Amino acid sequence: MRGFTVPLYTFKCPAGDQFDAHFSMAEVPAAVDCPDCTQPARRIITGVRLAQTNSSAYQLLDSTKRSAHEPDVVTGLPAKPRSGPQPVTTNPLHQKLPKP
Ligand SMILES: [Zn+2]
């Protein structure tokens, strides 16, 4: 399985039924059997959807954005300044943990 959303393709059969199906870009067939009449339904090229999902530049941008944000998430936890001895349970995050 891949980490990103599988593109959605639209098919239309000779009887006029139209339906959507998910395929990876490498596996999408030119035609699939219609679920209603079992005739071969041909894939319709939908420019808008393909423009969103078929762009490698978009995926590169997405992964770049993610890798830039992850370090902030990991190191972004607020560090409580310690002012003298404190009980361990004053941290609200610790109170959500199950008691031993
Ligand atoms: Zn059909």
TrEMBL record:
This is Zinc ribbon domain-containing protein. Residues 63-72 have a biased composition (Basic and acidic residues). Residues 7-46 form the Putative regulatory protein FmdB zinc ribbon domain. Residues 63-100 are annotated as: Disordered. NCBIfam families: CxxC_CxxC_SSSS. InterPro entries: RbpA_sf, Regulatory_FmdB_Zinc_ribbon.
